[in-house]
């Protein structure tokens, strides 16, 4: 509650929880935001990061902390087929640009966000000629592995897990 009041966040906008992948500490979980709403709170996010940093918390240097973003599946399409198509495009983009995305992520350990690979047990359409077409078949099924860069396992969201945790505002907004 101190953090929320210091930063101008309502207590229902942020919650804090234990995370088994963290060596020490807790995770900060924001409530869902539209893109417009998120950017309207830029100063609040900046104050939150500064508050945590000035009170001795760490993120980037903690070693196991990640910055994860959940995107509503409804934003990706109106039907499962449209959502699978959008997810397949993201998979394809990440596959084709993994080296650059890994560098931008600032991560050195990818144990919690491995590069996605097409499921070995996926039944691919024999007519699929491109990686995108193969990913599209795979994207229609939710993945079981939570520790991948693109987590397709949640029924309501699609999760980007590649970012390294940070209390630096520039890195956070990037």
Secondary-structure map:
Blueprint: H1 2-7, E1 14-17, E2 27-30, H2 35-40, H3 42-54, E3 66-72, H4 73-76, H5 80-96, H6 98-105, H7 131-139, E4 150-151, E5 157-164, H8 169-173
Antiparallel strand pairs: 1-2, 3-5, 4-5
The total count of strands amounts to 5
Tally of helical segments: 8
Rg to the nearest angstrom?
18 Å
Order of neighbouring strands in the sheet with most strands: 3-5-4
Average pLDDT, all residues? 80
State the share of residues found in helices, binned by percent: 25-40%
Q: What is the string of SSEs from the N terminus onward?
A: HEEHHEHHHHEEH
What structural category arises from helix and sheet content?
A: alpha+beta
User: Main sheet?
Assistant: 3 strands, antiparallel
> What proportion strand?
5-15%
Rough outline: globular
Distance between the termini: 27 Å
Q: pLDDT under 50 segments (min length 5)? A: none
List keywords for this structure.
alpha+beta, three-stranded antiparallel beta sheet, two-stranded antiparallel sheet, 5 strands
């Amino acid at each position: 509650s101190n953090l929320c009041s210091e930063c101008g966040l309502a207590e229902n906008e942020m919650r804090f929880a234990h995370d088994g992948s963290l060596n020490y500490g807790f995770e900060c979980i924001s409530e869902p935001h539209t893109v417009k709403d998120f950017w309207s709170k830029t100063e609040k996010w900046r104050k939150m990061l500064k508050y945590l940093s000035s009170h001795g918390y760490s993120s980037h240097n903690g070693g196991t902390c990640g910055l994860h973003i959940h995107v509503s599946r409804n934003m990706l399409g109106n039907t499962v087929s449209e959502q699978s198509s959008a997810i397949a495009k993201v998979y394809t983009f990440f596959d084709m640009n993994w080296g650059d995305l890994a560098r931008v992520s600032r991560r050195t350990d990818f144990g919690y966000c491995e590069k996605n690979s097409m499921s070995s047990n996926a039944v691919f359409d024999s007519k699929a000629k491109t990686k995108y077409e193969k990913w599209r078949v795979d994207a229609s099924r939710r993945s079981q592995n939570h520790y991948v860069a693109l987590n397709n396992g949640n029924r309501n969201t699609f999760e980007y897990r590649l970012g390294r945790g940070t209390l630096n505002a520039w890195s956070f907004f990037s």
